[in-house]
Design goal:
It is built from 9 helices and no strands. By secondary structure, it is mostly helical. The protein folds into 3 domains: 1-60; 62-106; 109-148. α1 runs antiparallel to α2 and α5 runs antiparallel to α7 (88-106). The chain is elongated, with a radius of gyration of 21 Å. The mean pLDDT is 80.
Length: 154
Amino acid sequence: MKKAEKLPRLKELYIKGHTLTKASELAGISRNTAKKWQLADEEATGETWDRLRDKQVGRNPTAPLESAREYLQCLLDNQRKLREDAGFADRLWKACSVVEKLEARLSDPERILGALRPFASWLTPRLDDAELSRYRELFAAFMADLRSGKVEVL
């Protein structure tokens, strides 16, 4: 692969939430090369990759979890080749740990409730009394099921 093919992949991985080191590893280039390409691309486009990443996370709050899962899958897919690397077990353990922490954080019922409050505020004035009563009943049942583990968010 050439730079024209690797740069878009590197940028996509970074914007999805990978560190530059992980993105460069997944794109098959050195971290130093990745940093040079990043700086050159930011200068050429006039927009930093960090700003693009912030926009992505704003549109998709689970993007960091998806990136962590993608990195973990890459490690697992390439484990035969990577096992020879002394740091493989450590990277695998850290990737698993990050996925577990993000899943726990993103599936926290209080966090979900906080995210649903703006929707509830928007919806409430648009419902009549009977609809509002039914909405509250269903919402309470959803939260009870979420807390009991009957509903999985991720």
